[in-house]
Write a structure and sequence with these properties.
Helix content: 25-40%
Strand content: 25-35%
Shape: globular
Radius of gyration: 25 Å
Strand order of the largest sheet: 3-9-10-16-13-12-11
Bound molecules: adenosine-5'-triphosphate
Number of strands: 23
Structural class: alpha+beta
Length: 453
């Protein structure tokens, strides 16, 4: 595995700590590890897939369920190759690269220092660099048995185009009216050259995108609305506000389709980086698809009595990148009885396991009672039963994977049907009646605030 870049001097999670926690506890494994691993591809283990699904559900709920004018879509990864000509990806979706003639390494010029670039010197070995050339990031494959130019298709580099080409279908088959949005979560693929930093930048990743179609005169208003809304989303996921900020794209940074673009950035252990982009894509995409397909994708607004091509405000977030954000943000260390404790301060809605249930000892019917409690909570919460080892160790194991609540069944429980409910962050323990557990946990989830925030 490549070395992880970490230049932030603090007590927070270093990338190495996170990577090893993710591996050790089954969040993220390197792809094809038994064969030595595949660069920049990662697999989500039992806890990782739970975390990822919970983030995805939170996004889907925030975008579709909590808005009455956003509908969902799940488009195919493979699309007609003309889509990518119309979108501008065949022509423009490129990174400028140079090769080293000595060590054969390849670098993105936009990520190199001026000095090395001007001297045409390799950052790795000091060897001579080639002239820059444009390298397209789309993965190509062939549809059907014949590998010819005519059978080339691409793995989509963004999910957005699946939405634009279905714009008319959605307008005609659901009751949406401009302004309205289409939301989609799915895989995207980019042949990235620099894939450092774990799951931050990978060749295969997942996006959560929403395209909001508006009247051209209202683009600025809706842009501001979505900018604010999306920032709030990360705060609601429990991400610390002090680690979030906006970054506006300058003229040199703007994508070929964008009129205005803001990134929401997070302060990762390796610095401030993009987490989500909010873009005013104007009518660029619909217009291009009209030109290339010859189909009319304009919209007839019967309230305004006007036909127009809507502008699009896009919110484009990385699901897998949000997994990294949430993990990096949640990681904390403190001290318990003179020992270091690693704890993931995950929002309870995101934690892969919500409640750990532990009998103090296995004998004297405590295991049976704990098992009963665990089964009764399963319907509503994701639970985990653990009877192995000292109770302190069992707490520690759950703290490390972010389980917000622990229930301990002891001898007193048999007498008065109360248990200890332990809170991960404060380690506070309270005595609760077994019947009152669901409501106590529900309330604690609802009222959750990260300590010190
Ligand atoms: P970057 O500048 O980081 O390459 P971008 O500006 O090309 O990103 P967009 O095309 O705006 O990114 O994609 C929207 C979101 O998709 C990004 O904010 C990010 O969260 C996610 N994303 C993009 N590329 C990758 C990748 N290679 N790996 C993981 N997530 C990605």
């Amino acid at each position: 595995m490549e070395d992880i870049v970490n230049d932030r001097p603090s007590t927070d999670a270093s990338m190495n700590t996170l990577v090893s926690l993710c591996k050790r506890r089954g969040f993220v494994y390197q792809s094809s590890e038994v064969y030595g691993g595949l660069t920049s591809a990662w697999d989500y283990g039992p806890l990782g897939v739970e975390l990822k699904n919970r983030i995805q559900r939170a996004w889907w709920r925030a975008m579709t369920q909590l808005h009455d004018n956003i509908v969902g879509l799940d488009a195919a990864i493979l699309m007609h190759p003309r889509v990518w000509e119309a979108s501008g990806h065949v022509e423009n979706f490129t990174d400028p690269l140079v090769d080293c003639r000595t060590c054969r390494n390849r670098f993105r010029t936009d990520q190199m220092s001026e000095e090395l670039l001007n001297a045409r010197k390799c950052p790795e070995c000091g060897g001579e660099l080639t002239d820059p050339r444009q390298f397209n990031l789309m993965f190509k494959t062939h549809l059907g048995p014949v590998e010819s130019d005519a059978s080339v298709v691409y793995l989509r580099p963004e999910t957005a185009q699946g939405i634009y080409v279905n714009f008319k279908n959605v307008v005609q088959t659901s009751r949406v009216k401009v302004p309205f949005g289409i939301a989609q979560v799915g895989k995207a693929f980019r042949n990235e050259i620099t894939t450092k930093n774990f799951i931050f930048r990978t060749c295969e990743f997942e996006q959560m995108e929403m395209q909001f179609f508006v009247h051209p005169s209202e683009d600025e208003k809706w842009f501001e609305y979505w900018k604010a809304e999306r920032f709030e989303f990360y705060k609601r996921l429990g991400v610390r506000q002090s680690r979030l900020r906006f970054h506006q794209h300058g003229p040199g940074e703007l994508a070929h389709y964008a009129k205005v673009a803001f990134d929401i950035q997070y302060e990762f252990p390796f610095g401030w980086k993009e987490l989500e982009g909010i873009h005013n894509r104007t009518d660029y995409d619909l217009r291009r698809h009209m030109e290339f397909s010859g189909k009319d994708l304009s919209y007839l607004d019967d309230v305004r009595g006007e036909r127009f091509t809507p502008f699009v405000i896009e919110t484009s977030a990385g699901l897998t990148r949000t997994v990294l954000t949430v993990l990096a943000d949640a990681y904390d260390e403190d001290e318990v009885e003179g020992e270091k404790r690693s704890v993931l301060r995950l929002h309870p809605e995101l934690a892969p396991i919500t409640v750990g249930v532990f009998p103090l000892v296995k004998k004297d019917g405590l295991a049976e009672l704990a098992g009963e409690i665990e089964r009764s909570l399963r319907e509503e919460f994701s639970t985990f039963y653990d009877q192995g080892g000292a109770i302190g160790r069992r707490y520690r194991r759950q703290d490390e994977v972010g389980t917000p609540f622990g229930i301990t069944v002891d001898y007193q429980s048999k007498e008065d049907r109360t248990v200890t409910l332990r809170f991960r962050d404060s380690m506070e323990q309270v005595r609760v009646k077994i019947e009152e557990l669901p409501e106590r946990i529900r309330r604690a989830i609802r009222e959750y605030r990260r300590m010190g925030e």
